[in-house]
Design goal:
Layout: H1 7-30, E1 35-38, E2 44-48, H2 49-55, H3 81-88, H4 114-117, E3 118-119
Antiparallel strand pairs: 1-2, 2-3
């Protein structure tokens, strides 16, 4: 039979969880790419992670995990994703929309600005 934990034991477990979670976040934050290239038929998109994180004042939670997963797995964007992303304020559309994004970040909207991200070689 499981015994009931006392409040001080619960607090110690919660504190340990917070410390371990913060430590894991620190490790992830130290191993971030400077730039990420997304292949696209419309021209590859080079995402400058360093510049974006500086704009967000190094607050990873501005984008992760709400707008983007915090992993190295491919995002697999599909054609025509921009309008949907702007409408739902997800992925790039989280900030690149007419009204801006988290932390009051404002960025150009994707509509009519293809060449700002998509570069044909």
């Amino acid at each position: 039979m499981a015994r009931k934990l006392r409040p001080d034991q619960i607090m110690r477990i919660a504190w340990l969880f917070l410390v371990l979670t913060a430590a894991a976040g620190f490790v992830v934050a130290q191993d971030v790419p400077d730039k990420i290239v997304f292949p696209s038929k419309s021209g590859n998109v080079t995402f400058n992670h360093t510049a974006h994180s500086q704009r967000a004042k190094e607050d990873c939670s501005a984008c992760h995990p709400a707008l983007f997963p915090q992993s190295r797995a491919p995002i697999n964007y599909k054609a025509g994703m921009h309008k949907a992303a702007e409408t739902t304020k997800t992925s790039c559309g989280g900030c690149h929309n007419p009204t801006g994004g988290p932390l009051n970040l404002k960025a150009f909207e994707t509509k009519g600005n293809c060449a700002k991200c998509h570069v044909r070689k």
